[in-house]
Predict the 3D structure of the following.
Amino acid sequence: MQIAAYRKFRVTLTTKERAFLQTLIRKGTNKARILTRARILLLADTQQKDTHICQALGLDRSVVYDARKHYVTGGLNRALYDLAHPGKARKLTGQQEAEVIAIACSGAPSGRVRWTMDLLTEAVNKQIGVSIGRTAVYKILLRNNIKPWLKKNVVYPVHYA
């Protein structure tokens, strides 16, 4: 399997690419992962076998295989740098986040002077119907610069007599 993969993903660097990788390694200002991948590509360009590269750099075979594969299929940038990792999708929509803010700006529950994160999280989960944790509620409040535990940030309803 490895022999076929070695032949399938043969690394042949141009002189520009080789010079770039050598400069990258010499400066040493990048992440260790990028420098390791650069070393892999330079050794692979000299037609070294994967087992020799693994022993020389103290790596697992899959790392060397992936570096070769990414170079052949996507070029030098793809071989050196990781693709962007998409974050986890948000649980709440913009409308629901506005509702969280409205709840936080409303008066505290009866018998309480102010909101706590636990009370606010419980109220949000009941009223909106989505199960989120206290950290998510806190981050929503931080993004919108709302601090319901401080009196000056709470919007008190006007009572008409």
Q: What stands out?
A: DSSP finds nine helices and no strands in the chain.
